[in-house]
Specification:
Oligomer: heterodimer
Largest sheet of chain A: 5 strands, parallel
Low-confidence stretches of chain B: none
CATH class of the largest domain in chain B: Alpha Beta
Number of helices of chain B: 3
Distance between the termini of chain A: 15 Å
CATH class of the largest domain in chain A: Alpha Beta
Shape of chain A: globular
Radius of gyration of chain A: 20 Å
CATH architecture of the largest domain in chain B: 2-Layer Sandwich
Number of domains of chain B: 2
CATH superfamily of the largest domain in chain B: Aspartate carbamoyltransferase regulatory subunit, N-terminal domain
Largest interface: A-B, 19 and 16 residues
Strand content of chain A: 5-15%
Structural class of chain B: mainly beta
Helix content of chain A: 25-40%
Amino acid sequence: MEWKGRDVVSIRDFSKEDIEFVLKVAERLEEELNEKGSLDYARGKILATLFFEPSTRTRLSFESAMHRLGGSVIGFSSASSTSVKKGESLADTIRTVEQYSDVIVIRHPMEGAARLAAEVAEVPVINAGDGSNQHPTQTLLDLYTIKRAFGRIDGLKIGLLGDLKYGRTVHSLAEALAFYDVELYLISPELLRMPKHIVEELKVRGVRVYETTDLEGAIPELDVLYVTRIQRERFPDEEEYLKVKGSYQVNCKLLKNAKETLKVMHPLPRVDEIHPEVDKSEHALYFRQVFSGVPVRMALLGLTLGVL
Amino acid sequence: MPELKVEVIPEGTVIDHIPAGKWLKVIEILGLTKPNGGTLLIASNVPSKKLGRKDIVKVEGRYLSEEEVNKIALIAPNATVNIVKDYKIAEKFKVSIPDEIVGILRCPNPNCVSNHEYVRPKFHVVSKEPLKLRCHYCERTIEGEEILKNL
């Protein structure tokens, strides 16, 4: 697969070989970065970050990744300061921005925006989240974090906890994990179960899947617990939400029954689904996960720019 | 022979086995509603062994290609097409669902970019039986009634 000029829009466009390759390049770049402090693969190249929606981690880690590669960054972090406010179409915005840059990163509130941008632009486009659809670089950095922590992904028992119905992160992650020999525990309230078609697809692809509402019961089995936020607005009434919220908080008491080596992950931002007391424990992997965003995005930027 | 209820055409295309009541949608999709197209002969609600009732559309003076006619596969999956030359059937084929469906179906997801930007909606066929489509842009899948509602 030719990487130069390739768009990164959806994890569906990735084969297992593609994923493994990105993870390997990210690891190499992380090591090089540790040795040298900064790199200059992308010197003279410009990244445009188009954030039509707010973000902390994704935007800053893309920008950090480009700087670490020796390139520079232009862009905006809210649509309100651009011509979009005057009614400019997305296609025109992309055609304009590509005149100024060598690679585009886009986050947009509409599903499919990154696909459209990739079709319009000559330069590579990387999707940093399109509405509730895809966020492929998050999935890749999640896999990278697991691989760095365990040295492998095969053979692990991974629990996905929280809003499995609407959460785009867990959908893409589950689909990517299906390339590996893993057991998946899908832990959620009844109301927020993983959509049937995804569960079916996982099973067809050979993943052993267990669906449960019982976090406490599942915890001793797990190697990884991937926690996501349960959103209040998904519940028809407040009382139901409060009940669920309480029963899915990850705290030190719950983790007493976990394997010593269990790692807790979270795409962040968190609200109160992981108690801050967990932060200092050996289980907490979520800040390391944040760090993974940089080498993985360096790999993707470098590969699509064709400079590695 | 229900076909004989409608005049036989010397040259053109006969689309048979359209589900009853769908002829208008068929000619819309095929772009045959414009007044400068050829003569159209329509038979609607014709008794049929296969379908109970069916519609037939005859397009005079125009040979529709397989690719063109496959566009109607979503609403008339059992349609058969006869190409008529000099009053005789010169070619016969069945409609089949193409791998991609472009410009016919609107994406039902209101937040899909294809409903907001100047772009032709496009779907990939995930499965033909039962029919299941995935939007090229927002990647949502649709099936059954939802497909028909958005034609």
